[in-house]
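Table S2 (text version). Query chain:
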Amino acid sequence: MHPITRAVGGLTLAGVAGVTYGVIIERNWFALRSLSVPVLPAGARPIRVLQVSDLHLVPRQERKIAWVRRLADLDPDFVVNSGDNFAHLEAAPAILRAFEPLLERPGAFVMGSNDYWAPGLKNPAAYLTRDYAKAPKDRLPLPVADLVSGFVAAGWSDLNNARTMVEWGPDRLPVELVGVDDPHIQRDRYAEVAGPSSSDAALTVGLTHAPYQRVLDAMTADGAELVIAGHTHGGQLAVPVFGALVTNCDLDRRRAKGLSRWWPGAGGPGQPTAGSGDEPDDAAYLHVSAGLGTSPFAPMRFACRPEATLLTLIPRPS
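Corresponding structure-token output:
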């Protein structure tokens, strides 16, 4: 066999193997990430916050439903749902069934674009252009009101362009929550809830589905010490060592998933690189979840396992 033919054949087999792995194995290989975040006042006992994001649920996905239900065994102090729950017009009952045990805990939520509009076939190359936020015109509206009413009836806080005070953890620490509706489809209205962190709050936490810089800048400028987001899928298809290729928003690739720091203007020119250690001492923490699902039209992950995250909040260093 000619060496070139052999090389092409080898690359073809490797490609087929990679796609098969990404479609069959990795996208169903759910992971629980555990991280510590030093944002509490001195002497406070740890608070466990469970983030579930980007479920993209199709009703037949019983394995994913069962995995999410088992997260209640972690006994979190608070649950955060950062949006994009749907991947099917009739998924609302299945989503509520997945979250049922977690709805017995205190929680809060915001919505993503895929909670409003049913998934549609989209050119994957669009994610590499400025057209990534444009939805096909024939997408169908989803029964988002059914999901919202189910979450609210369980006592969860609706943070779509809203601000509220809650109590977290064994010390019943006063925590201020501020959130926006999905910036990816321009539903964010942060100006309606903007303002300095409450003097009564021991901690201010921001929540958004898509981590667009305009929202991160505004929340951290107002004093949010932790911002929680989803949307990026961690890039969904990543390159080992290199990481995510895209974030599907204006966040840089280094922050596509996991814990990093953010401060007003952090994404601008001349700012320290994420993870460089040169961030301002008072920079907020940003956690971006890689999420648990994919679009049914792109059912694949590579080098980026689906995940939920248990954030353990601990006291700030003295």
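Notes on Table S2: DSSP finds six helices and 14 strands in the chain. The chain has one domain: 3-315.
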